Amino acid sequence: MVEESDVRVVRFGGSKINLRPPIISTDSRFVLCTSGDSVKVYSTRTEEWLHSLQGHTNQVTGIALNPANHLQVYSCSADGTVKLWDFIDGILIKTFIIGYPLFAIYVSEKHEGIVFLHIAMDTDSKKEGFQLVAVHLPKSAEQEVEAKELSAVSSHISPNPSCTAFGREGQYIAFARNLQLNVYFFRKQKTYSFSLKATDKKGAKNAFTCIACHPTDDCIATGHEDGKIRLWRNFIHKKEYTYSTQHWHHNAVNTLCFTPEGTNLLSGGIESVLVQWQYGTGNRKEFLPRLGGSILHVSASSDGQLFCTSHSDNKITVIESSFKVCGVIQGLVKGDAVLTDLMIDPRSKALVLNGKPGHLQFYSLLRDKHLYNLDIVQQEYIYEAGLDQFEVVKAAFDIKGYWLATVEERGQKSADLEFFLKLWSYDERTQSFVLNTTITAAHTDRIISMCFSSSEETTMLVTIAEDGQFKAWCQGVDADTKQDQNFWSCDFVGSYHNLKPTNCSFSADSSLLAVSFQEVITIWSPDTWELLTTLCQPPGVIRDLCFGRLSCSKYLISTTTRNLLCCWNLLTCALEWSTSVEVSKLQSDPLSENVAAFSYQSKHTDLFVFKPNEPRPLFTHKNVCSEKIHRAVFVPREEPLNNCDESSQWLNRSQLYFLTQNMDLLTFSTATEEDRMLSSSTRLVIDDSVAVTPFYLLLGKHRQQQQKLNTPSHQAADRPQQPQGSVTITELLHTPAHVLPPASVLCSMFVSSLLISNTGVLQDPLRKEMESSEQEMNSEKEEEDSEGEMEACDSQQELRVQGSVDEVTPKLSKAQERELKRVRKTDFSWMAGLIASKP
Amino acid sequence: MGEFKVHRVRFFDYMPSGIRALAFNRDIERIAVARMDGSVEVFHCSDRFFQEKIIPGREQCGIEGLSWVGERLFSAGLNGGITEYDLTNQKVKYTVDAYGGPIWTIAGNQQGTHLAVGCEDGTVKLFEVNEDKIQFERNLDRQKSRIISLSWHPSGSKIAAGMMDMIQIFNVETGHSVHRLLADRGVGTSRSKECVVWSVVYLSDGTIISGDSVGMVKLWDDQTGTLIKSHNVTKCDVLALSVSQNEDSLVAGTSEGTVVQFQFISMVLGKDDKEWVRTRTFKNHTHDIRAVAEITTAVVSGGMDAQLVVRPLLDKVEVRSAASALRKIHFPHRRLVSCARKSGLMLFQYPGHLELWRLGESEGKGMPGSSLFVKRNPEKLLHLKVKGEDHIRCSAVSPCGEWIVYSTASSLRLYRLHCDNNNVSITKISKLPMVLSSANQLCFSSDSSHLFSASTQSSVHLVSLSQSGCKFVGTLKPKSGERTIGFGVLHIIEDGKWLASANSDHEVHIYNLQTRKAHCTVPVYSSAVTAMGIHPTTNCLFMMYADQQMCEYSIEQKQYTDWSRMVQRKGLHRFWMERDTPCLNVMFNPQHPSHVILHDTYMLCIIDQSLPLPDDKTQFYNQLTLKSLPEEQRKSHSHAFKVCKTFKDILCVELMSDQSLVVVERPLEDVASQLPAPIKQKKFAT
């Protein structure tokens, strides 16, 4: 983020939405959750992502509704700021600069103007220590305020933010760390602490894992590592405190939450069962099982009608108080490890990688939305640690997205390896992949890599395995069965001096297949299965292979384990150039000649983008991140950017995404892109004095435009032009259905937008509608010079007419005529807009 | 420590009887326990729960309820009678028939004026407690179904009675029913299955708490007769309830073996509106808990698994110490085994019969720790059934193995054993002196020539035994005759010349057998004597107390010995003091005069009086460390206490005259395996 000013690494979507408990807004319409550098706002009804609150420059580590205003939310971030947002409109209201990395935020109704924050203790001591501080937020009109008044409430608190909770009416705060529960009373300024033994005779692990306080009673619920839930009472006495114990969870209780009335206690853990305990009646409990990944957080809406659980598979489930799941918000599923490459489904342009155990997930990068999971293993997954279960380890798409090949494997650690090669075909009718062929013993040993041929006519799959062979699989009519369906069978088995293959790749036109065997690259012709040539540049085992594209298709690029990046010219079969660089991942852009190489050196990763025919890298980005990068993918853009800047040109056709070792999906963004995003977000900024409804958005914008129109100095041509056709139609089509006003309201407006006004000033809204549509038409026709002149003239004429509408002059009939003409045109262009905006 | 040949005896099939009722007396800090076999035991709560008194039961005498009235103990049972016990002489004082069929419950009011019993015929009968007897006063309104449980309001004006499907509140003045509280039969149970209100508690603020067979603990208001709150405690029955003195805590025993505590807590701190909240759960039993009692600092529970569990409430304990630890009492603090030291015979005392066994023999010598080959198996010689319905109170076999004596509450029988080769026969000595009508404790002299019997009349009777019969010789009485009330003699220790007896008032008297006069009295200590022995050569009396203290008293000099004073001065090791069962026997090894052998339920210990005493810093269990040290260093590391924990659940250890030890074990697993199957419970992951 230093050298190149306009290309920077951003954490892209799909980031963790389960880091902190989600919040349900007071009216139960929105769910807010932290997601990378931003706070995301989802609708509870439609599970749709509405917008995100962007502005933090580091991980957002906590959100809390402003107790003084239920339409505002506080967020804190590791960048050391607390920001106050209007989350419905996505407006940043204020920024408070604290100056220390913040890790969690708590608010309480009783403490107005004070937020409680987790900050790290002085970093010089090695052991992790956190302290809870109260920060008085200064009242000031400025946008950015520095909050200086910090007072420590307690030091040495647990790094887990769910181990801290406010008690009844904010009178006390309870926090636990390891085996000690502390209760701090604000009024008395006294801390009571209670500790448990590390283990009891039965081997229970008593460490605290989470805390919740009853909203009306003085009762603290604590969850423990062994799955017990204790309800503490009478905790103002050193000795006469008491607790009751309940035990249902068989593993650590991850989260506890009282419903707002205090009638129920919700708990969740690794079992992924939401348990509702009836408060005060001991054992009565209800279960909501099979929610997916283990439950990390539970939160309840302030009216108690909705609950929200967030799960380890990056999911938020919205649950009604009747214990019925009513919505699932799925982020990018992040398992323990991504074993497959990052891939792009050519059809849906979705990112494909490991999802739920045994599944492949399809994730739309564009909408930042999880599309669906494809069950590859088709076996029940057992949620228990230490079991060896089937896992998808390899997957590949053919170029048209019609075929998907997957490899699932079990027993990586033990000696008896089991694996299947499966081929899936895309079914147009069901719009999903259907299993076509399962090959049980494709190879005698583990499959290392596979790739589809990239030619359009025939589809061929090449797999290489540790048994020293590579196999080509073709789809052919089975001679025995003569069925319509075509199954896959082995076409060719190749090997090279019994060496172990390391990688394989097809050239862009599929005329060549390169298979690397240890230090040797062999080039085969897939048509005749003839070994064309071998290339070798010792020392070092070949790691990655990649053919050049487009104008550089005569080049083959390889990386070795001995820090060598070689570029071979296939026409001369000679080494074109080589350079000594440790490359951990080589990725070529399918839409351009560019090749991206991630190099891991001295604890950080650098990126080089180069063209095979040019020895000089196109683009260099030092210190992309501090981890090694093994997965990267170029994602074609929907519409190419036209950046002239040399350094960001390579991002015009496609975007580069890469996955770090701790499962962060990162990408590069350019300055122009960010500008565009910024402009689209400012579009929504509106007057604060008016209640913000979607309906207002619809109306208000037109009013604004009209205001602009009425200013005499304004020139229609100078106004920023809307790129789209009709605003009304766009609004109608782009606003989520659930936030739209009733159809009857819209209808009248819609119809009125079609009406022609002849009363001029008296019917402002209608006029305005007309005006605006006129403007839109203008913008559309801007390029066409000849008519544009005339339109501009028209509008000027119109302005004049406005000024003197009640004068009855002979000119009037002419003006009317003109207006009629114009209206006809307007109508027509509006129709064009309608057609254009239809997807 | 010395090496012994050990007879590890596991054929004593002693089966403790299940606990049916508990009654706690706050004033004298005693808890009375009634068992299924009709026996009643009294434990001293502040003296480490030492079992002070045992009143043996009778056949066909099921006790259903116990109640203290002042310092008097009453019980009622299914035989329809109310029994008062003579606690000083440890026997039944009298039994009054209530004429209402089997009695299910008994409750005394706090004023100590009346007893109420609930009968099978549906009546609650009030008895007036007089000086020396109880007198039937009247019946309260008769109900249709049996009265299962009763509780007096602390003011004594109302009684709550638990019945089938309902609770009745009676006004004691008028005898009429004030309210009927209907207990529902619970969801999921069949309609025909009645809901039994097993237990009720009437609090002073008018709250009635009931525990029933549906598994609910319900709180009722006696003014309106309405249900305030109900807690589902278990899937099976809530059998027992008990409330603490200040009514802020309640414990409920269930048939799952759990004790559930409820506490009266203000829900909002600092405010006065309190609620009953379920708090802790204790699981120390495997079977039904039939009785619970909340005493000042602990919860005492007992049930079908025959163990008495004392679970301390740490929030009420001021100082945490060994006295306030979790305690499980499995076996009586009495010896049920007597050994004929010279002839290798053992007499096992069961409630209804005696068994005489001959120890097995082994050959050769083995390595320490190894087991020897048994040449001759142990052999049961005799099975002696008790005449009459009373259970055995005490028994003894003479050291030579020729005499067997036992006593019940009503009679004493002396037998002479003829044992030639394989034929064993006994003859009953028919003409017994009048003084031998009943005994609290029996003992033979070491040469088997005399029988000592501790009578109920504050004295020890001396009877000489011969081939022809027995003859009353004399009575040993304490020197000062100021104590005219009889007291039960606990231990008689005889050593040719001296005889020591301890009673339940913690007094130890020493008599000279030659002069048959009282010799002296050992200074009274606050704790009860659990075991004592007279050293054969030095004539010192070695005493063990219930609080794990030990004393050595020189009989000849009539004062504590120097060693004993040193023990008192230096104090005993922490680990020694933290043991939770009393020492049950004191023996001396003639080969090592400085050795004293002690045992309790969990260990066998030899105290070498010639070695230094350990202080709190030294390692107490140091045998393994000593073994690893070279010979010359052992001396500096060794201390007086040598503890052997090889044996568990010890009922008796005796040193035989051939220098072999007899260790009678009764493994708790064997006891548990003979208990009926507990209520089946779903266990996680099974």
Automatic annotation (TrEMBL), chain A:
Residues 342-663 form the WD repeat-containing protein 75 second beta-propeller domain. One of its GO terms (molecular function) is RNA binding. One of its GO terms (cellular component) is small-subunit processome. It is found in: Nucleus, Nucleolus. Residues 781-792 have a biased composition (Acidic residues). InterPro entries: Beta-prop_WDR75_2nd (IPR057644), WD40/YVTN_repeat-like_dom_sf (IPR015943), WD40_repeat_dom_sf (IPR036322), WD40_rpt (IPR001680), WDR75 (IPR053826). WD repeats lie at residues 53-95, 201-232, 246-287. Residues 766-813 are annotated as: Disordered. Pfam families: Beta-prop_WDR75_1st, Beta-prop_WDR75_2nd. Keywords: Nucleus, Repeat, Ribosome biogenesis, rRNA processing, Transcription, WD repeat. One of its GO terms (biological process) is positive regulation of transcription by RNA polymerase I. This is WD repeat domain 75. It comes from Cyprinus carpio carpio.
From TrEMBL, chain B:
Pfam families: WD40. One of its GO terms (molecular function) is RNA binding. It comes from the Eukaryota. GO terms for biological process: maturation of SSU-rRNA from tricistronic rRNA transcript (SSU-rRNA, 5.8S rRNA, LSU-rRNA). One of its GO terms (cellular component) is t-UTP complex. This is UTP4 small subunit processome component.
